């Protein structure tokens, strides 16, 4: 199958008696975004390290860009770019010097190297800060610089390990745009994330990793069909009020113990207003009202019956 950028089968990895990867199979088509979704400690970084030749698996096979990671590590490394979970940026160097270092490592001729550095600084909106030490950069700028460094040499397969964890919403959106740009250029992206929304926004295919096993796989839509959608949660003061509300909202799910009602909703202002009006008309007042968008916890609860809490390390 030449159209697979990454193919792993039966991957296993343990640290002493702790099993971290317990038989993982992955197929990533070239030119697509594959997202490995999982909470802290699920084994995402371990998977990335194995796929990128940084770590040797205890069992299983991996082919990346058609090369075996065990016997052709050099060829694999030549085909990929990796942005680790913890920035590879040297804080004492300026943005430009960090990029120049990558260009030198990859042995580009001087003139071409200069052109690449200037181009990447421009593309990531870092030209203005290029002369300042990376230590002075914001988290978002540092991640951008890190990704720019990964792009030196134009790898066709890129691994991004939690590229937006800890970023503010605006920097996260910038990062998403950059990733979309790479995909538009035909690059294959292997992305790990703890955010369902991020996987939903970017991925063609999502695999959910839980304690070293894949517990679900599919397109974002296939996955979301298995979990509760956006809904409004209403909590009432009395069982009588809950009864009335449940009657006027037949599509809702009730929880008699918590005195709550879960009403499917798109979360938009129009439908929220309509819902509140309806309650008003019937003279029922909710004690609390919240809009709930599904997150990783909902995915895990729906798929595994437990939340994302990490088992003690
Ligand atoms: N070098 C190591 N030695 C021992 N345990 C490790 C090592 N690296 C990772 N682990 C453990 O393996 C599990 C998965 O880690 P990791 O792959 O970093 O998860 P994630 O990236 O999803 O947060 C964790 O329980 C972690 O403590
Ligand atoms: Mg990690």
TrEMBL record:
A molecular-function term among this protein's GO annotations: ATP binding
Coiled-coil annotated spans: none
Presence of keyword ATP-binding: yes
Stretches assigned to the ABC transporter domain: 6-236
Pfam families linked: ABC_tran, DrrA1-3_C
SUPFAM superfamilies per record: P-loop containing nucleoside triphosphate hydrolases (SSF52540)
Keywords: Antibiotic resistance, ATP-binding, Cell membrane, Membrane, Nucleotide-binding, Translocase, Transport
GO terms for biological process, alphabetical: daunorubicin transport; doxorubicin transport; response to antibiotic
Top-level lineage group: Bacteria
Membrane topology term: Peripheral membrane protein
A GO term from the CC aspect: plasma membrane
Similarity comment text for this entry: Belongs to the ABC transporter superfamily. Drug exporter-1 (DrugE1) (TC 3.A.1.105) family.
Name of the featured protein: Daunorubicin resistance protein DrrA family ABC transporter ATP-binding protein
The organism of origin for this protein: Phytohabitans houttuyneae
């Amino acid at each position: 199958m030449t159209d697979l950028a990454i193919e792993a089968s039966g991957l296993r990895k343990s640290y002493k008696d702790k099993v971290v990867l317990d038989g993982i199979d992955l197929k990533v088509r070239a030119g697509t975004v594959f997202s490995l979704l999982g909470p802290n400690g699920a084994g995402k970084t371990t998977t990335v390290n194995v796929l990128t030749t940084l770590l040797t698996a205890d069992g299983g096979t991996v082919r990346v860009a058609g090369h075996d990671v065990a016997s052709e590590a050099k060829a694999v490394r030549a085909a990929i770019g990796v942005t680790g979970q913890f920035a590879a940026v040297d804080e004492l160097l300026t943005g430009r010097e960090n990029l120049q270092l990558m260009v030198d490592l990859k042995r580009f001729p001087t003139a071409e190297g200069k052109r690449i550095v200037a181009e990447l600084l421009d593309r990531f909106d870092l030209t203005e800060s290029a002369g300042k030490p990376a230590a002075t950069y914001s988290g978002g700028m540092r991640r951008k610089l890190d990704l720019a460094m990964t792009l030196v040499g134009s790898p066709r397969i890129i691994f991004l390990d939690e590229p937006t964890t800890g970023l503010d919403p605006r920097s996260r959106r910038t990062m998403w745009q950059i990733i979309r740009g790479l995909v538009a250029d035909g690059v294959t992206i292997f992305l790990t994330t703890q955010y369902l929304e991020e996987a939903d926004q970017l991925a063609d295919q999502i695999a959910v990793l839980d304690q070293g096993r894949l517990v679900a796989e599919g397109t974002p839509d296939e996955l979301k069909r298995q979990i509760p959608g956006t809904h409004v949660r209403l909590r009432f003061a009395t069982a009588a009020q809950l009864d009335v509300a449940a009657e006027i909202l037949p599509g809702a799910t009730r929880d008699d113990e918590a005195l709550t009602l879960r009403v499917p909703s798109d979360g938009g202002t129009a439908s929220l207003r309509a819902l509140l009006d309806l309650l008003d008309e019937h003279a029922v007042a909710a004690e609390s009202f919240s809009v709930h968008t599904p997150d990783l916890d909902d995915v895990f609860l729906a798929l595994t019956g437990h939340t994302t809490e990490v088992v003690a390390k």
